[in-house]
């Protein structure tokens, strides 16, 4: 167990220090690669248990640089014959809009490259929000995405990264009232300027970055039975500190995780954890 003791926390498994911050578990790993391996091991453990209990597992997945090591470890676990994705269904957090699934910058392409093509996940169970629907129907399609998740029995686990501005998925900072933000559905959103700047290199310039995206809403994210949030590097330290130790507010979407903190595990490295006041 971890403690708010100001003494560096307790020794956790996998070479980390374990703390508790407002009810959330916070694991600080010396090396982000160990955090990724541990996150993959936890996802497999959660999936195995769900498959034992109800013959299937439903995992919420993220894209971006942060979880790359998680997907490498999941693919390795599969290749070694230690875990099959046959009974797994996945729901990704987001997709740029408009965006063809075949575009090299699409999140569908990212997931195909790093996970879907590496494991035995059925194509009709590997879901990524659709960046090709007409804009007038994007919210309707988003609502259907939430219904699919619900019909699958909800997310057993949700993997998250965090933006420098505190976004999760592409739920961007906003003035929305707390209660409304907590209930937000999967929908079409405008991307924050910081998010577009951070994606500029991938797209070959800011001008090329889409201004919109479809994102899973806070309702489905917060409904996950287990939430793993990964953040590495000093450029995430401010967002991590605000998310864990600021007031829950839609201005810092990751701070809304405090409302379900007993289900949340943060997996950090020393740089991303440096703004935390243990
Ligand atoms: C990606 C996503 C985003 C990223 C976040 C961090 O599906 O939902 O919230 O997790 O922007 O991105 P990286 O990991 O590239 O720093």
Derived from helix and strand composition plus strand pairing, the structural class reads: alpha/beta
Ends distance: 14 Å
Q: Biggest β-sheet: count, sense, barrel?
A: 9 strands, mixed
The distinct ligands, each listed once, are:
fructose -6-phosphate
Q: How many helical elements? A: 8
* Fraction in helix: 25-40%
Q: How much of the sequence is in beta strands?
A: 15-25%
How would you sum up this structure, described in words?
By secondary structure, the chain is of the alpha/beta class. The chain is built from eight helices and twelve strands. The chain has helices spanning 32-54, 68-79, 107-114, 135-151, 178-182, 193-203, 218-222, 237-245; strands at 10-12, 16-21, 24-29, 57-61, 88-92, 94-97, 126-127, 157-160, 187-190, 212-215, 227-231, 264-268. The strands form two sheets. A nine-stranded mixed sheet has the order 1-2-3-12-11-8-4-5-7. Strands 6-10-9 form a three-stranded antiparallel sheet. It is globular, with a radius of gyration of 18 Å. 45% of the residues are buried. Residues 1-6 have low confidence and may be disordered.
Quick overview:
The chain has 278 residues and is α/β, with parallel strands linked by helices. 32% of the residues lie in helices and 19% in strands. It has a 9-stranded mixed β-sheet with strand order 1-2-3-12-11-8-4-5-7. A 3-stranded antiparallel β-sheet has the order 6-10-9.
Topology, please?
Elements (H helix, E strand, L loop, with lengths): L9 E3 L3 E6 L2 E6 L2 H23 L2 E5 L6 H12 L8 E5 L1 E4 L9 H8 L11 E2 L7 H17 L5 E4 L17 H5 L4 E4 L2 H11 L8 E4 L2 H5 L4 E5 L5 H9 L18 E5 L10
Parallel strand pairs: 3-12, 4-5, 4-8, 5-7, 8-11, 11-12
Antiparallel strand pairs: 1-2, 2-3, 6-10, 9-10
Helix pairs in contact: 1-2
The chain binds fructose -6-phosphate (F6R).
Fructose -6-phosphate (F6R) binds next to loops.
């Amino acid at each position: 167990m971890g403690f708010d003791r100001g003494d560096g926390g307790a020794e956790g498994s996998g070479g980390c220090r374990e703390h508790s911050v407002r009810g959330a578990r916070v694991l600080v790993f010396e090396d982000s690669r160990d955090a990724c391996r541990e996150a993959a091991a936890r996802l497999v453990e959660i999936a195995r248990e769900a498959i034992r209990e109800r013959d299937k597992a439903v995992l919420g997945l993220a894209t971006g640089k942060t979880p790359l090591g998680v997907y490498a470890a999941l693919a390795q676990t599969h290749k070694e014959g230690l875990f099959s994705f046959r009974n797994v269904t996945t729901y990704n957090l987001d997709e740029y809009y408009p965006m063809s699934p075949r575009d090299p910058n699409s999140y569908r392409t990212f997931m195909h490259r790093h996970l879907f093509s590496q494991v035995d996940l059925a194509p009709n169970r590997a879901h990524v929000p659709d960046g090709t629907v007409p804009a007038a129907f994007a919210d309707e399609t988003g609502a259907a995405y939430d219904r699919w998740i619900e019909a699958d029995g909800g997310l057993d686990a949700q993997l998250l990264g965090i933006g420098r501005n505190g976004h999760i998925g592409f739920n961007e900072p906003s003035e929305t009232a707390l209660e409304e933000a907590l209930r937000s559905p999967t929908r079409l959103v405008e991307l924050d300027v910081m998010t577009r700047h951070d994606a500029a290199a991938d797209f070959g310039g800011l001008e090329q970055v889409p201004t919109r995206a479809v994102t899973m809403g806070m309702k489905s994210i917060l409904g996950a039975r287990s939430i793993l949030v990964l953040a590495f590097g000093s450029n995430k330290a401010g967002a991590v500190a605000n998310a864990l130790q600021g007031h829950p507010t839609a201005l810092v979407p990751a701070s809304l995780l405090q409302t379900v903190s007993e289900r949340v595990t943060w997996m950090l490295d020393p740089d991303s954890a440096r703004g935390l006041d243990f």
